[in-house]
Amino acid sequence: MEGFVEFDSEITLLTVRHSGGTSFLDPVGHVQIDGDYRESWQPAALPAAALAKAQQMAAAVTGALGGWGLFGVELFILGEDVLFSEVSPRPHDTGMVTMVSQDLSEFALHARAVLGLPAGGAERIGGPDEPAAASCAVLAEGTGVPRFGGVDAALAVPTAQVRLFGKPSVSGHRRVAVTLARGADVRQARERARAAAAALRITLD
Fold it and tell me: Average pLDDT of the chain?
């Protein structure tokens, strides 16, 4: 049976199963359009009761699946209640924000976990002045080899970083890059990531 769910927000709780147990990263908020990731930010604001329930649910789901590695557990937040949405047994697209938010990204934690190395924690790197981080997907539409312009302008945005995916070709509607930024709060971090994304120019040859 299916039903329409009225929810306040959707988050990804990046959950790491490793040799030392199960660990959770700060919740990641995100925006999806047509079921596809567009923006994410960390930390997502959650009531303490909702965060506790989210962690319990993520631990139960990943524990039932078993194995070591990083899992992207997507959850719907309804006040202090939590509903399970889906799980990806691998680094998650919304978790790309961790490349700028913490010293060990989701990719580094996944590699450590599957290799049986310590993966019990990651330190936030924003500091008290820039405790929030955000990512923004950059898309191309059409057919051809993506070429990038405006990288200098994107990197001129305060704290901004750019990752170009290096896809050999694009056919249709594809993500080809992501911009990352930190800020004094989530709003500023998202604004900076968006500004960097807007500065990039994508052409298809």
Answer: 95
Q: Is residue 124 assigned to a domain?
A: no
pLDDT tens digits, one per residue of 57-68: 999 999 999 999
186 CB neighbour count, 10 Å cutoff:
18
Q: Is 129 exposed, middle or buried (0-12, 13-18, 19+ CB in 10 A)?
A: exposed
Q: Which residues of 42-51 are buried (b: 16+ CB within 10 A; e: fewer)?
A: bbbebeeebb
Read off the pTM.
Answer: 0.93
Distance CA 198, CA 52 (A): 37
**CATH number of the structural domain spanning residue 88:** 3.30.470.20
Residues in the chain: 205
